Amino acid sequence: MLVKRHIQNFAYWVDIARSNEIEIEIEIEIEKEYAPLLAKGEIGFEQLLHHAADNLRGHRALSVFWQLTRRCNFSCPFCYIRDNSQRQLEATYEEIEELIDCLLEEGLAKVVLTGGECLLSEHFDHLYSRLKSEGVLVTIYTNGSLFNESRKDLFRKLPPYSVEVTLYDCDATSQPFATIEWLIEAGIPVLCKFTATKSNIDHLGAVRQWCDEHQVDLRLDGRLFNGDNGIDAQVLSLEEPTLIALEKDQMGAVSLDRSPLESHARKALGCAAAKYGAYVSPEFKLGLCCDYPLLWDMRQEGVRNALCLLHDFVDREKEASLVGCSGCEAQILCEMCAAKAESIKSNDKTMYRVPLGYCDEVRTRYLSLIG
Ligand code: SF4
Ligand code: SF4
């Protein structure tokens, strides 16, 4: 079944009975340029969103990262988000409905549903079905343990754009592995992720082999973060040389080729989120992304007003420079931006300064990777 979506003068059709069937309809230029590549799978929907966002008059929430809950049925000792005590703060059915209505009016095109474990939310099925039937592309981040028969029926009828399953061990008889096999059989794009720590690094070889045999991509991640739930993830972190070896393996030789340096001062908010992204927290707060500390409480501000506050904020800040950065050879690894820089208020303006020591750290990592 085809559903038509609009982002201002840009329109496209989505077949909601398939994972990612998209057809561009209006905008002759973009159709000529992108339609053949899209049909061959050579570009993703993200490029189309970039194009659509270039023609917007200001920030809009076209792509939303929605953390439905902090709760999880697993208890990984390094998890920065897990907090099973927070249920009462999660969004209600009515709040979810109001937010979706407002986002659809803005042109919402893409949503990532995540957690904690997002499939634990009692509103997941409703929220997912509503987004899908409106033609929104939905990606699900999950631990893969809660795919029961009714969920499978739902995903057969309305397949997700993609599913990313994080594996924590190599037990191929466990539910997460069975979920990945089911997703492959159902023709739903799937990515396996493995968070490598001191306690599971020995399983990595077997996970790799399983992924190779099942022809499914595997993304490794070994950098752990301490969250605000009191968990000290660093005690489980691999030693730096092992992390570098993992990263080298992930990035490959080509992507480490020196990228052309940006000749101008970098913007603190030069990312896609600053053009068309938004973040919804488990406590029903709205922000730019899960790393940017400023959030608007949609219960206090009202949903529509919180969206306006986010747009105004981004439109005001998006020209701010990243003081202390003029671009360097390590920028391919650099994650510095407004969310991680030190913000300094001066005459109603905010400046963002790179924290001392950050650049040396990134350059050291870069040299280890190319060495
Ligand atoms: S962390 Fe920084 S670069 Fe990433 S989305 Fe947030 S503001 Fe943008
Ligand atoms: S490492 Fe420092 S100088 Fe290099 S790109 Fe990042 S912020 Fe800029």
Automatic annotation (TrEMBL):
InterPro entries: Aldolase_TIM, MoaA_NifB_PqqE_Fe-S-bd_CS, Radical_SAM_PqqE_MftC-like, rSAM, rSAM_sf
Any one GO molecular function term: oxidoreductase activity
Cofactor: [4Fe-4S] cluster
Start and end residues of each Radical SAM core domain: 58-261
Classification via CDD domains: Radical_SAM
Key words, A-Z: 4Fe-4S, Iron, Iron-sulfur, Metal-binding, Oxidoreductase, S-adenosyl-L-methionine
Cross-referenced PANTHER family: PQQA PEPTIDE CYCLASE, RADICAL SAM DOMAIN PROTEIN
Protein name: Radical SAM core domain-containing protein
Species: Adlercreutzia equolifaciens subsp. celatus DSM 18785
Top-level taxonomy: Bacteria, Bacillati, Actinomycetota, Coriobacteriia, Eggerthellales
